[in-house]
């Protein structure tokens, strides 16, 4: 056996390489750190997170947690974070619908429908989101009529340049008593699902289609029994109506929120449409034909053959689109929605704490991304093909 | 394209049959068709009415130069035109030499030139002459490319490698050449700035991306964790925060006495940092697609690790990821619009400053639609050209 | 604990940057493109003003002050942070030229430094990044209608120059919802108010409505022009900003200015002026004394048109101001005739005001000379 000189030993060289790399990193970090501290010291600035507890003294247009100008900067940033989470969560749900529908529409046998879907995808994917947002906000939503001449849609939904007013619900005093019926109704759904699964495993066949109506009827039955016992309804509808200068009652989406949500949903939907289309097309025709020859209906083929397989192809790119949507919500700053980035920006401007706030922004987005990836990875590992 | 599918013989022909087959095949298709028609009518009618009667398109005409080059000194405009002529020349040369592969881009460039000649003539503007020159140069170099000897391919490759540094030099200028005075990057604007950011961001990020991809697949744990950390950190945060950071923090990290680079340069650094993480993932995809046998064969030939990488693996991996790189070119092109938030005068910010002009208040739709058309048209053309190139090269297919 | 977190944060960011710098070095072909060009641009700018004669050696180590001013002198251009979309104060016009009150002060400093009013490089800054731009050294001077406040002066590490414009925050509302200019905040109960983020205005708005116990909904934009556009489109019932802004922008960007009322209510004091980063007193002195010189020149009746006649004046005050006598300029590292240059190339304070703000119907008011009952008062040049 030949003894190699230590400088030709692969393991030694690897270790040396790493040491050199770490040294270079440390040197560069030290150099940058020295520069930052000199620069800051020269201007008499200090770095620290003390400012977070100082009163913010600015107001925020919309907030899902209580906030007023006397609250701290930390609280203001939290408001921004919650606003970002709300618009991202709603956006992810809605964009999935839009994307799946558009993706299926692109494969429609109806020429007109598939052309419209293709045009939607082609135009939206190829233009910048930020310009789309500004177009929706300044070009469309702010051009809606004033409150008094609101566009009334059935619902009633009112479209005005001051916001979108939708009917909403409000809990009545009877809501507490109703909770139990609602829980029982929800539990019944799970019971039905378990029963169906048992049948499917036992007989290797899905239950007849009309059995699925049980999902609808059983909860309704339970709620109807509840209504017999407790006649007062649990929720009261709130209908927006014109009162003075503004609408009262109902849900209001501010123009900024509406434009941001709409823009994000439309934009991300066009990417999801392509993913869904590619996922469905990845299923070979043979699968479909085999399913049809087994006597499965079109709906059954879609549900039992195509979707489960397409899902595997679809989920990983879909995850990154969801993440993109959440990250893109930072463009809210262009249209005045108080999201995390926009509020953090204001805080930087009022306090001058550039480094600290940028660290907060980056850590927040990073943890949101990691959390979403984690969830989707868990889901992905459940639907993944077990490889041998 | 695994198998060639035989189309069933057509049973009937003619427009009626087409309509029946494609629009009214089943009862729900009939319903869908009418719904779609109704929707189109409801959306398109007011939109067209607005575009043809109400819209004040004069805002575009009045500010066209601003949209294209921002504050770039007007007396130095010839430099921008020269870069366009050079581009025409390079495309023509490539078309002549590589034929099929560059035909898509060449046709697009010719068509765009023709369209601008017509528009220039319609608007009574002199720019049609410049576009005519550009098209003429393209055709002349096409002819040159056809008659060049076998050496042509390497000449064209060299030309492209020189082209990008050269246009940067032309646009930025230098104090060493008297007839090419420096133009400060703060004066770059509009489409010119957008394109410069896209090109620099993409080309600058590629080597860094390759290094990161190699680092991520490295056996050295520290190198690997560093690469993974960098890639995941950048991919986990929005681009606008990276740009924001580059804009605000780069000067803080530099020595006190050094003049901080201009905003455009800082933003370019931000784009390179951002894009490198994404291109690293693209390249990694390409590296993973390389068969183990290739490594083993290289080893059997006695190539060292570095030689295996640079001669065998990387060329194949990069070739495999060409479509992905084209895609990131397009997405970076769109993403450059975020520099408007930082305060650079790209197309979007020019649009916003146009909206603050007293004469053109309330022309949001016109201005933003114009910006849409620029981005959309450019991306469409680029997609078409790159697809033709990919088909001719046979990349992206196994 | 806090220190450690910060350190970790800084290190994390540092390592990102490092990856960009450190990783680029051993890169194969193609890569040097960007790096090399960065250098080219930097060199050009340095060379532009010095005419290529003076090579800039490594500047001396940090001294008590003056290194920034020296860097500017070596570079040959002043980098001035201004507004970009604010007609009357700082505006980029369709021809690509910079105009406005704040812009003219940048030209005045350039004239004093280089005897060339065009040796300025303008950078448009938003309200949000203007102070960080100063802190990070991106601009030398900020002349972007910024309010001088204690926090900004102290906490942000800035030094504010003399006030160039005394302003006050006001509120403009649609004529159909308020009784008239005499209306108070109570008339705006429940109103949507458009405001720009990162301004003192935003803070005063919150303070004033809170003090008056009136509820309102702020609609906050990153850019003033967007706030005005949104207000004009009817998104808000009222908009708040400095009175000068409401008057100029109201005329410039609102579709019909007559439909809007600027309330008489004064919500705050807004002394607007230039600012520089702390750490270079020489630069701050220059900024201060050029502005004072322009005010003093107006008081003495010296304008850009007649300044040459004053060169032969016997009045020692005039002679000292214009640098004919004494060595005032050299004491702050400038040429002795720096005020002469400024007046000759740009004009006195009154001229700048008339050129830029009078067209928008702004009267001198508080911004008139102290001799006319205003607040403009220059310390003596001696």
Name its key features.
heterotrimer, A: about 400 residues, alpha+beta, two-stranded antiparallel ribbon, 11 helices, about 65% helix, about 5% strand, C: about 375 residues, alpha/beta, D-Maltodextrin-Binding Protein, domain 2, 3 domains, 10-stranded mixed β-sheet, globular, disordered N terminus
Give the termini distance of chain C in whole angstroms: 53 Å
Structural class of chain A: alpha+beta
Going across the biggest sheet of chain A, name each strand in turn. 1-2-3-8
Which term fits the overall shape of chain C?
A: globular
Instruction: Please write the string of helix (H) and strand (E) elements of chain C.
Output: HHHEEEEHEHEHEEEHEHEHEEHHHHHH
Unreliable runs of chain C, pLDDT <50, ≥5 residues?
1-64
The overall strand count of chain A is 8
Strand percentage of chain A lies at 5-15%
The largest contact between protein chains, plus residue counts on each side, is: B-C, 68 and 67 residues
Q: Superfamily at the CATH H level of the largest domain in chain C?
A: Periplasmic binding protein-like II
The shape of chain A is globular
Tell me the Rg of chain A in angstroms: 28 Å
Helix content of chain C: 40-55%
> What is the average per-residue confidence, as pLDDT of chain C, rounded to a whole number?
81
Main beta-sheet annotation of chain C? 10 strands, mixed
- CATH fold call of the largest domain in chain C: D-Maltodextrin-Binding Protein, domain 2
Order of helices and strands of chain A, N to C?
HHHHEEEEHHEEEEHHHHH
Total number of strands of chain C: 13
DSSP summary: helix tally of chain A: 11
CATH class group of the largest domain in chain C: Alpha Beta
CATH-derived architecture of the largest domain in chain C: 3-Layer(aba) Sandwich
């Amino acid at each position: 056996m030949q003894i190699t000189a230590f400088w030709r030993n692969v393991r030694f060289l690897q270790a040396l390489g790493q040491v050199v790399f770490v040294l270079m990193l440390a040197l560069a970090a030290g150099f940058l750190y020295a520069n930052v501290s000199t620069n800051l010291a020269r201007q008499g600035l200090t770095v620290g997170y003390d400012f977070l507890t100082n009163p913010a003294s600015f107001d925020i247009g919309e907030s899902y947690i209580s906030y007023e100008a006397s609250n701290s900067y930390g609280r203001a940033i939290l408001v921004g974070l919650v606003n970002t989470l709300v618009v991202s969560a709603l956006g992810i749900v809605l964009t999935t619908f839009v994307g799946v529908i558009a993706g299926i529409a692109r494969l429609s046998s109806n020429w007109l429908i598939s052309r419209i879907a293709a045009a939607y995808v082609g135009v939206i994917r190829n233009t910048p989101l930020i310009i789309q947002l500004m177009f929706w906000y300044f070009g469309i939503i702010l051009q809606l009529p004033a409150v008094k001449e609101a566009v009334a849609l059935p619902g009633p939904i009112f479209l005005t340049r001051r916001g979108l007013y939708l009917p909403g619900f409000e809990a009545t005093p009877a809501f507490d008593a109703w909770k139990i019926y609602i829980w029982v109704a929800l539990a019944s759904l799970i019971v039905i699902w378990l029963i169906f699964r048992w049948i499917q495993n036992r007989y290797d066949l899905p239950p007849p289609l009309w059995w699925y109506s049980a999902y609808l009827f059983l909860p309704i039955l339970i709620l109807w029994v509840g209504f017999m016992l407790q006649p007062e309804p649990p929720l009261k509808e709130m209908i927006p109506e014109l009162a003075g200068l503004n609408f009262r009652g109902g849900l209001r989406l501010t123009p900024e929120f509406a434009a941001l949500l709409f823009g994000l949903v439309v934009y991300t939907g066009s990417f999801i449409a392509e993913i869904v289309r590619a996922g469905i097309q990845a299923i070979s025709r043979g699968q479909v034909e085999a399913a049809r020859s087994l006597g499965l209906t079109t709906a059954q083929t879609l549900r039992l053959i195509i979707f489960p397989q397409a899902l595997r192809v679809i989920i990983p790119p879909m995850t990154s689109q969801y993440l993109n949507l959440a990250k893109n919500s930072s463009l809210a700053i262009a249209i005045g929605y108080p999201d995390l980035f926009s509020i953090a920006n204001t805080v930087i401007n009022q306090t001058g704490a550039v480094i600290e706030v940028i660290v907060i922004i980056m850590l927040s987005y990073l943890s949101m991304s990691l959390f979403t990836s984690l969830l989707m990875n868990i889901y992905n590992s459940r639907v993944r093909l077990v490889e041998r | 394209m695994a198998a060639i599918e035989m189309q069933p013989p057509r049973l009937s022909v003619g427009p009626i049959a087409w309509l029946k087959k494609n629009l009214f095949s089943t009862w729900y298709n009939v319903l869908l068709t009418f719904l779609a028609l109704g929707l189109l009518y409801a959306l398109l009618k007011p939109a067209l009415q607005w575009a043809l009667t109400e819209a004040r398109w004069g805002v575009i005409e009045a500010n066209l130069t601003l949209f294209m080059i921002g504050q770039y000194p007007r007396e130095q405009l010839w430099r921008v035109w020269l870069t366009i002529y050079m581009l025409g020349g390079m495309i023509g040369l490539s078309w002549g030499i590589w034929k099929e592969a560059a035909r898509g881009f060449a046709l697009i460039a010719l068509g765009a030139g023709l369209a601008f000649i017509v528009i220039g003539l319609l608007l009574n503007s002199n720019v049609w002459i410049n576009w005519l020159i550009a098209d003429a140069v393209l055709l002349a170099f096409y002819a040159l490319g056809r008659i060049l000897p076998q050496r042509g391919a390497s000449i064209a490759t060299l030309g492209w490698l020189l082209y990008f540094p050269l246009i940067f030099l032309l646009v930025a200028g230098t104090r060493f050449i008297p007839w090419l005075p420096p133009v400060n990057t703060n004066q770059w604007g509009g489409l010119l700035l957008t394109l410069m950011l896209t090109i620099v961001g993409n080309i600058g990020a590629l080597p860094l991306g390759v290094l990161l991809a190699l680092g991520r697949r490295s056996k050295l744990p520290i190198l690997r964790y560093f690469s993974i950390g960098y890639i995941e950190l950048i991919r986990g945060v929005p681009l606008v925060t990276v740009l924001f950071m580059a804009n605000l923090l780069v000067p803080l990290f530099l020595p006190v006495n050094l003049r901080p680079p201009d905003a455009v340069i800082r933003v370019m650094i931000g784009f390179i940092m951002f894009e490198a993480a994404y291109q690293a993932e693209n390249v990694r995809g390409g590296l993973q697609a390389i068969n183990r046998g290739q490594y083993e064969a290289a080893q059997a030939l006695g190539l060292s690790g570095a030689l295996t990488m640079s001669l065998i693996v990387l060329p194949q991996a990069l070739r495999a990821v060409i479509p992905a790189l084209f895609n990131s070119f397009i997405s970076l092109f769109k993403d450059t619009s975020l520099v408007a938030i930082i305060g650079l005068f790209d197309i979007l910010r020019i649009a916003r400053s146009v909206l603050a002009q007293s004469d053109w208040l309330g022309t949001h739709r016109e201005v933003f639609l114009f910006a849409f058309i620029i981005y959309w048209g450019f991306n469409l053309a680029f997609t078409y050209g790159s697809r033709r190139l990919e088909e001719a090269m046979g990349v992206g297919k196994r | 604990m806090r220190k450690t977190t910060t350190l970790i944060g800084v290190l994390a960011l540092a390592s990102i940057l490092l990856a960009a710098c450190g990783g680029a070095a051993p890169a194969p072909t193609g890569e040097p493109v960007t790096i090399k060009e960065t250098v080219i641009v930097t060199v050009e700018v340095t060379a532009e003003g010095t005419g290529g004669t003076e090579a800039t050696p490594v500047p001396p180590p940090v001294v008590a002050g003056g290194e920034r001013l020296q860097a500017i002198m070596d570079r040959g251009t002043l980098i001035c942070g201004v507004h970009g979309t604010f007609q009357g104060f700082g505006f980029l016009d369709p021809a690509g030229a910079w105009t406005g009150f704040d812009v003219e002060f940048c030209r005045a400093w350039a004239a004093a430094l280089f005897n060339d009013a065009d040796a300025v490089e303008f950078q448009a800054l938003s309200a949000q990044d203007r102070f960080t731009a100063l802190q990070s050294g991106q601009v030398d001077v900020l002349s972007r209608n910024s309010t001088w406040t204690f926090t900004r002066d102290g906490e942000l590490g800035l030094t504010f120059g003399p006030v160039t414009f005394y302003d006050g925050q006001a509120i403009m509302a649609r004529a159909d919802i308020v009784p008239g200019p005499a209306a108070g905040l109570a008339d705006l109960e429940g109103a949507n108010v458009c405001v720009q983020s990162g301004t003192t205005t935003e803070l005063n708005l919150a303070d004033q409505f809170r003090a008056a116990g009136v509820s309102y909904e702020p609609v906050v934009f990153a850019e003033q022009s967007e706030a005005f556009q949104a207000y004009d489109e009817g998104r808000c019932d009222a908009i708040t900003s400095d009175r000068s802004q409401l008057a100029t922008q109201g005329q410039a960007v609102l579709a019909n200015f007559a439909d809007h009322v600027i309330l008489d209510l004064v919500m705050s004091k807004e002394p607007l002026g230039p600012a520089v980063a702390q750490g270079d007193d020489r630069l701050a002195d220059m900024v201060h004394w050029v502005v004072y010189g322009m005010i003093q020149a107006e008081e003495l009746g010296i304008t850009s048109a007649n300044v040459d006649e004053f060169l032969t004046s016997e009045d020692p005050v005039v002679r000292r101001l214009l640098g004919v006598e004494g060595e005032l300029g050299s004491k702050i590292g400038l040429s002795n005739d720096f005020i002469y240059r400024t007046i000759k190339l740009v004009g006195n304070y009154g001229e700048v005001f008339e050129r830029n703000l009078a067209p928008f119907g702004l009267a001198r008011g508080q911004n008139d000379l102290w001799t006319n009952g205003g607040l403009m008062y220059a310390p003596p040049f001696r």
